[in-house]
Write a structure and sequence with these properties.
- This protein is an alpha/beta fold.
- The chain has 15 helices and 25 strands.
- A nine-stranded mixed β-sheet has the order 2-1-11-10-12-13-14-15-16, sandwiched between helices.
- The relative contact order is 0.09.
- The structure holds adenosine-5'-diphosphate.
- The site of adenosine-5'-diphosphate has 24 residues, from strand 14, strand 19 and strand 20.
Length: 537
């Protein structure tokens, strides 16, 4: 067989040749919709590569982005990685200190940003000495008259100076292609460096029927941001499969998303539970229905059963629960039923669908106890979740102390899970969030899911607080829905009969809002600080 290396540029070359007239539609931060084809996108990605080379960008250099999902960001994915440099997508929702840390750690040489982030970039620039040039992702008409940013240029002028007459280099497939930092839910942000090979293998795996199941008849709307683990691979798997791609820009509110779903005839989408909750409320309020959307992925955080049920049963969408992390590219598992499950009663099917699911090819997983010994796949025993495979990180970018892997080469996810005999994995907690009561583990996720099933509760988090006898006991911190009343006693009574009595939280505290990370996950480190020294009555 030919030793053809797997390269990211090969994806856009393929789409430009075989799906030349398939569209990419984006909502722009400057306003309005932009529409062009894979052929045009390929030409502009090559113009970008030429411009980058002229700016001195070469193999392995990091080029940062602070940008929404747009066609220009898509071009950066291909232009930067295609020439052999590293496309470093940065999450603009992080704190300024975290952004400065990440840009300096990555040593980004150029930084491309959307107009929305100009005020943020002006704050960052004095602290980011490695950035030689800041490029505004827009045309010259939007360039500010005066700016303190070194060498500020607009993107369109950079491209306009190039011919697009460029051949992508034939890179070794293990060349680094892109970089994402984890959102720092539990620690300092850590960089995960992907390669052309890992990205291509992940794109094939993500396209499979039991995963995203996308083909040339699909229209994909990437709700998940391109700064959140490469939008879960969508910017790569869309050209691989010849899917029409819809990019929502900064407008992630339910009304704007719904408008795009309908006007662009979207068939597939992927996003985190928080976004889908907002969309669900909007759909219910206006008694709305989707005309073309038929399947969606929910992941990035545990999907509350009520959300899955509502999209599945009320709106008739095939919604799949997926698990992954920055270190897994990110897709690890998807909860898709096997043939033998189709005859099961609805409740039994739902019990499987709400789990995090089965591995996709390219990922292997195990659960182990505290001594590192494998635990049975009986759906009951839970332990540390380990994964391995060609698109799983072996270490962190620029890390001085190796140690992400076990002695036998598995990556420690930091999640705690069960695996059932059919291979369905179920996350019970992050290892740092597990509540240890009298030597036994209590799953905070199970308790949170139960709490939000109460009609008066909008959001809930459960943390362990010190207890003299049991060492730790669960404390439920909850947000009431506006206009709803429920007392602590009533909420606790709601748990009766639904879980083991010793799992029932010892106390409830009501708050007006819960702390979240930049990717919308509960920030339990903050919550533990807020409730440090909490005394159970
Ligand atoms: P960070 O590790 O900084 O939060 P990631 O985006 O990589 O950034 O988060 C990965 C983590 O998110 C996983 O280890 C897991 O704890 C959580 N997660 C992702 N998807 C799910 C899911 N479907 N159910 C439960 N937890 C999930």
């Amino acid at each position: 067989m030919m030793p053809t290396p797997l390269r990211i540029a090969g994806l856009i070359e393929h789409a430009a040749k075989w799906h030349a007239d398939t569209e990419i539609v984006s909502r722009l931060p400057e306003g309005g919709l932009h529409r062009y084809t894979y052929a045009a996108a390929h030409h502009r990605a090559k113009q970008l590569a030429q411009a980058l080379i002229k700016l001195g960008i070469t193999d392995g250099d990091r080029v940062g982005t602070l940008a929404w999902n747009t066609h220009r960001h898509f071009e950066l994915y291909y232009g930067v990685s295609g020439l052999g440099a590293v496309c470093h997508t940065i999450n603009p929702r992080l704190f300024v200190e975290q952004l400065i840390y990440i840009i300096n750690h990555a040593q980004d040489r150029l930084l491309f940003f959307d107009l929305t982030f100009l005020p943020l970039v002006e704050k960052l620039a004095p602290h980011c000495p490695t950035v030689e040039k800041w490029v505004l992702l827009t045309g010259p008409e939007h360039l500010p008259a005066a700016s303190a940013l070194p060498g500020l240029t607009d993107y369109e002028s950079l491209l306009a100076a190039e011919t697009g007459d460029y051949e992508w280099p034939v890179l070794d497939e293990n060349t680094a292609s892109s970089l994402c930092y984890t959102s720092g839910t539990t620690d300092e942000p850590k960089g995960v460096l992907y390669s052309h090979r890992s990205t291509l293998l992940h794109s094939y795996a993500a396209s499979l029927p039991d995963c995203f199941n996308c083909g040339a008849r699909d229209v994909i709307l990437a709700v998940v941001p391109m700064f959140h683990v490469n939008a879960w691979g969508i910017p790569y798997l869309a050209p691989l499969n010849g899917c029409k791609l819809v990019l929502p820009g900064p407008a992630l509110d339910a009304a704007s998303l719904y408008e795009l779903f309908e006007s662009e005839k979207v068939t597939f989408s992927a996003g985190v539970p928080t976004i889908w909750f907002g969309l669900l409320t909007f759909m219910r309020e206006g008694k709305r229905r989707f005309s073309t959307l038929r399947k969606m992925i929910v992941g990035g955080a545990s999907c509350p059963p009520a959300l899955l049920r509502a999209f599945d049963e009320e709106l008739g969408i095939e919604i799949r629960h997926a698990w992954g992390m920055s270190e897994t590219s990110p897709l690890g598992t998807v909860s898709t039923l096997k043939g033998k499950h189709l005859e099961l009663p609805e409740d039994a099917k739902f019990f499987l669908k709400i789990k995090q699911g089965r591995v996709i090819f390219g990922v292997d997983m195990e659960i182990v106890d505290e001594a590192g010994q494998p635990l049975p796949h009986d759906g009951v025993a839970f332990g540390d979740l380990l994964v391995r495979g060609p698109f799983i990180a072996s270490d962190y970018f620029g890390s001085v102390q190796p140690g992400a892997l076990t002695a036998s080469g598995w990556f420690k996810t930091g999640d705690v899970a069960t695996i059932d005999p059919d291979g369905f994995m179920n996350i019970t907690d992050r290892s740092k969030d597990v509540i240890k009561s009298g030597g036994e583990w209590i799953s905070s996720i199970d308790l949170e899911n139960l709490a939000i099933a109460h009609p008066a509760i909008a959001e809930a988090a459960v943390i362990g607080v010190p207890h003299p006898k049991w060492s730790e006991r669960p404390l439920l911190v909850a947000v009431r829905k506006p206009g709803f009343e429920v007392s602590a006693e009533e909420l606790l009574a709601f748990f009766d009969g639904k879980i083991a009595t010793w799992w029932r939280p010892d106390a409830v505290e009501f708050v007006t809002q819960l702390p979240h990370t930049a990717t919308g996950k509960l920030l339990k480190t903050q919550l533990r600080k807020d409730f440090a020294g909490y005394e159970l009555g």
